[in-house]
Design brief:
Elements lengths: L2 E5 H11 L14 E7 L2 E7 L3 E7 L2 E4 L2 E5 H10 L4 E6 L4 E5 L5 E7 L15 E5 H11 L14 E9 L2 E9 L3 E9 L3 E3 L4 E7 H11 L4 E7 L2 E5 L3 E6 L18 E6 H13 L8 E7 L2 E6 L8 E5 L1 E3 L3 E6 H9 L5 E6 L6 E4 L6 E5 L8
Antiparallel strand pairs: 1-5, 1-7, 2-3, 2-6, 3-4, 4-18, 6-9, 7-8, 8-9, 10-14, 10-16, 11-12, 11-15, 12-13, 13-27, 16-17, 17-18, 19-23, 19-25, 20-21, 20-24, 21-22, 25-26, 26-27
Helix pairs in contact: 1-2, 3-4, 5-6
């Protein structure tokens, strides 16, 4: 039966990582648990909600090999509050596990049989690429904000990932959209450490899975990213994450990106965000905070479209090439896209009242934000 000695600092971060993976709402109690087991390399920890599976290795002193499942939340909270660095875990009869410091502290938690726990699916690692974590993390951060929250829009509840070999260049892109806004990031990789990766491939990563990938990229310089059938995976030296892909086809996003550029506007990002937030205060507290952007005399005039609860009007300076124009937009959508951009000087393209606006910037190479306009305006 399991009997090990472990350091609090070696396990606490891993336990924190799995709290967002474990399915706390599941009626299957076993999915509220994590799996702990030993082999000659040390202690392994696994967590799953059947769509995402996480596996990591933890240093420990093994006194007796064994395996057990234990409630993820209770175990994490207990270890988090444990006042000692040295922790002893010992399996007892009837699937109980004893947690002690060897002296004054003594706790017990009940476990469940490991036979009922969904085991980690080992994936084929051939179709993979080694990628800089900063690149992958940035792409997720800039596109995940546009993923749909509407579960009925099944093909929009995740991020589209594409890899393409074109003119001897390795191109990767990510796209997120909810039908009202769209985020697009494309990167060219000069040197690509790949292991028989596909020449061209696209798939949809569910939002929760993308969030877990982002956590791994935040703490590693490089990761191995790949796909095996209906799963994608991320590997580091001591962590493996596998994610079931969304079984759907992403819409043709390229068809809604205008090719021509009629009116090009440049403005300061912070000035725009702050102005939009102030104007929004007087409007009804909802997601439908509608505004008018009036472009004239090298200014952008921001005006509340909803005037039932209050009115506001502000101007910010702008440089633009093209005709004066008025367009209706949702404040929340515009702010969300601007907030993930690094560029201070934003370039906005407007082709007409019913055409989507495009957002880009010199410090956001490969990124394009798109917001659909409000079309129920007079005229």
């Amino acid at each position: 039966m399991l009997n090990i000695e472990i350091k609090k600092n070696d396990i606490i971060e891993k336990l924190a990582n799995v709290q967002s993976i474990v399915d706390k709402k599941s009626l299957a109690t076993i999915l509220n648990n994590i799996l702990l087991y030993t082999d000659n390399d040390g202690l392994y920890l696994e967590a799953t909600d059947l769509e995402i599976h996480y596996k990591t290795k933890i240093k420990c002193i093994i006194k007796e090999h064994g395996e057990i499942t234990i409630n993820a939340r209770k175990f994490y909270e207990l270890i988090r509050e444990f006042p000692r660095e040295d922790i002893f875990l010992q399996e007892k009869e009837n699937l109980w596990i004893r947690i002690t410091d060897g002296n004054d502290l003594d706790f017990k938690l009940g476990g469940l049989p490991t036979d009922d726990y969904p085991r980690f699916k080992e994936l084929e690692k051939n179709n993979s690429i080694r990628i800089d974590s900063n690149i992958l993390g940035e792409m997720i951060e800039k596109t995940i904000i546009s993923v749909s929250l509407d579960e009925t829009k099944y093909n929009l509840i995740g991020l589209l990932f594409e890899y393409e070999k074109k003119d001897e260049k390795n191109i990767i892109r990510m796209v997120g959209s909810d039908g009202h806004k769209l985020s697009f990031v494309e990167k060219y990789l000069d040197e690509l450490d790949k292991n028989n990766f596909y020449e061209n491939i696209s798939f949809i990563i569910p939002k929760k899975g993308a969030q877990e990938i982002k956590k791994i990229t935040d703490k590693n310089n490089q990761v191995i990213f790949g796909v095996d059938g209906k799963f994608c995976f991320v590997n580091t030296d001591d962590e493996i994450l596998s994610i079931r892909l969304v079984d759907a086809k992403f819409p043709n996003f390229k068809s809604i990106i205008p090719e021509n550029r009629e009116t090009i506007v440049k403005f300061d990002k912070n000035s725009m965000i702050n102005s939009l937030k102030r104007v929004s205060i007087v409007m009804m507290d909802s997601n439908l905070k509608s505004i008018l952007l009036n472009l004239k005399n090298n200014n952008i005039e921001i005006e509340t479209l909803e005037k039932e609860f209050g009115e506001a009007r502000e101007k910010i300076e702008a440089d633009y090439i093209g005709n004066d124009i008025t367009i209706g937009l949702n404040t929340k959508l515009l702010v969300s896209l601007l907030s993930v951009m690094k560029s201070q000087k934003i370039e906005m393209t407007i082709n007409g009242k019913k055409s989507p606006i495009l957002l880009s910037g010199n410090d956001d190479k490969g990124f394009l934000g798109l917001v659909m306009p409000l079309t129920n305006l007079e005229g």
